[in-house]
């Protein structure tokens, strides 16, 4: 029998079906839940996983004891060796040299051509820790580049007298800066750094050291991917640990006070007069490492070096739980109603089935008529649901992708959306088939002579 005959019967049956609209709406909701809600949940959860794997989000800061009365252990070689042996600890890095500093961009050089900067451009320069690496999307990493190299974000927006995360800002393409040399200078008239000195009671206190403000030339060797879920925003550039030490040493020697320089360097060579960062292998193991630090009486900060806003983590939990529950509930309702629709059709249309058999239809042909009837409902729901979800994803991505920097973590990847569309299409085709197969024994039992009596 030609397919158009089956299609004609399916259309005729759908026109008289009272349950088809209910099944259509439930299938439509299930497609939207699968494609739109779950893809948004995947986007947020994916960003959360990126955050948990970021180096700064896995670093615990420990400080020297501020006094013996607080009963904290001194950060000597013995304690540091014990910390390194804690399970899940990957490294312990001494905080030495520049850690972060705000600089003005003085000028930008490219191929012997110097471009003066007419407006105030401020960047935050961060130094990597000794064992730390920062991946780049293009160019070279800092560990394969010489001293006084830097990497900048792919969306570059130095402070211009206003917040870098404001709306309606124009981001520069970081790749345009590759190979250029930028000259920077501390925003104040001095370079400031935090250091520790003895408090006279057997402990240490922190103090600020103000050094001369010098100019430094940094060559842009790479571009990293800036995101709210990793440390480093549109205004943040990174230098290597060696570069951070050199920047501070140059400012220190500019004092031209050899006595103070010798005293400061002697303090710098004392491992107990430093703070350290502990790199944990995974964000989920931070609490266990902190408990071990408490056992060793080591003073630590309760938060990691970089913390994602609680609103993002809360949104991830809400969409994961609500999205999974809503999708499951709607899908179950759609399947149940589809089963009821098929079952009701067999009960209400026994005479019609008997007539079809009486005029020569075989069981498999009757089966295919019913299957085509219900798969048309499901496919219509899929087409409309996929279109609505795709339109919603496009609008959300356009708004978030061109909006404030912090909103870009909510951009939905089409790589997530398209497989979910394929999954919803498979469900739209397979669920009616499974329903029909489940009801097949009842269909086979309908005999033409018995069914004709219902007319």
Report on the structure:
It is a single chain. This protein has about 450 residues and is α+β, with helices and mostly antiparallel strands. About 45% of the residues lie in helices and about 20% in strands. It has helices at about 5-15, 20-55, 75-85, 240-255, 260-270, 285-295, 310-350, 350-360, 365-400, 415-445, 450; strands at about 60, 90-95, 100-110, 115, 120-125, 140, 150-155, 155, 170-175, 180-185, 190-200, 205-210, 215-225, 235-240, 275-280, 300-305. Strands 3, 4, 5, 6, 7, 10, 13 and 14 form an 8-stranded mixed β-sheet that branches. It has a 4-stranded antiparallel β-sheet with strand order 2-15-1-16, covered by helices on one side. Strand 3 (about 100-110) and strand 4 (about 115) form a beta hairpin.
């Amino acid at each position: 029998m030609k397919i158009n005959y089956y299609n004609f019967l399916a259309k005729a049956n759908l026109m008289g079906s009272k349950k088809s609209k209910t099944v259509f709406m439930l299938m439509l909701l299930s497609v939207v839940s699968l494609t739109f809600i779950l893809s948004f949940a995947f986007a947020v959860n994916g960003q959360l996983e990126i955050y948990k794997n970021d180096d700064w989000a896995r670093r615990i800061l420990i400080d020297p004891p501020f006094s013996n009365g607080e009963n904290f252990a001194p950060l000597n070689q013995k304690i540091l060796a014990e910390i390194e042996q804690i399970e899940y600890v990957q490294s312990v890095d001494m905080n030495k040299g520049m850690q972060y500093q705000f600089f003005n961009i003085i000028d930008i050089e490219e191929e012997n051509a110097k471009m003066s900067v007419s407006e105030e451009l401020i960047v935050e320069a961060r130094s990597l820790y000794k064992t730390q690496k920062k991946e780049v999307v293009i160019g070279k990493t800092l560990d394969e580049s010489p001293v006084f190299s830097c990497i900048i974000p792919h969306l570059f927006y130095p402070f211009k007298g206003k917040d870098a995360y404001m709306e309606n800002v124009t981001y520069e393409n970081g790749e345009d800066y590759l190979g250029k040399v930028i000259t920077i200078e501390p925003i104040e008239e001095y370079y400031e750094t935090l250091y520790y000195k003895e408090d006279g009671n057997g402990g240490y206190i922190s103090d600020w050291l103000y050094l001369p403000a010098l100019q430094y030339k940094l060559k842009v060797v790479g571009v990293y991917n800036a995101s709210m879920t990793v440390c480093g925003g549109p205004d943040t550039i990174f230098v290597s640990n060696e570069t951070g030490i050199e920047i501070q040493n140059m400012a220190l020697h500019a004092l031209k006070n050899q006595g103070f320089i010798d005293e400061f360097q002697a303090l710098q060579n004392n491992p107990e007069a430093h703070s350290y960062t502990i790199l944990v292998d995974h964000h989920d193991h931070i609490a266990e490492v902190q408990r071990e630090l408490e056992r060793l009486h080591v003073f630590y900060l309760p938060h990691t070096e970089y913390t994602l806003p609680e609103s993002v983590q809360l949104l991830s939990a809400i969409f994961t739980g609500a999205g999974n529950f809503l999708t499951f509930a709607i899908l179950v309702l759609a399947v149940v109603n589809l089963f009821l629709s098929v079952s009701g059709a067999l009960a209400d249309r026994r005479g019609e089935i008997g007539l079809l058999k009486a005029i020569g239809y075989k069981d498999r042909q009757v089966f295919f008529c019913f299957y085509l009837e219900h798969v048309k409902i499901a496919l219509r729901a899929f087409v409309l649901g996929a279109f609505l979800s795709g339109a919603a994803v496009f609008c959300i991505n356009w708004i978030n992708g061109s909006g404030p920097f912090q909103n870009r973590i909510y951009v939905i990847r089409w790589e997530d959306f398209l497989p979910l569309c394929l999954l919803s299409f498979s469900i739209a085709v397979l669920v009616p088939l499974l329903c029909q197969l489940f009801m097949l024994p009842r269909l086979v039992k309908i005999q033409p002579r018995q069914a004709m009596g219902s007319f």
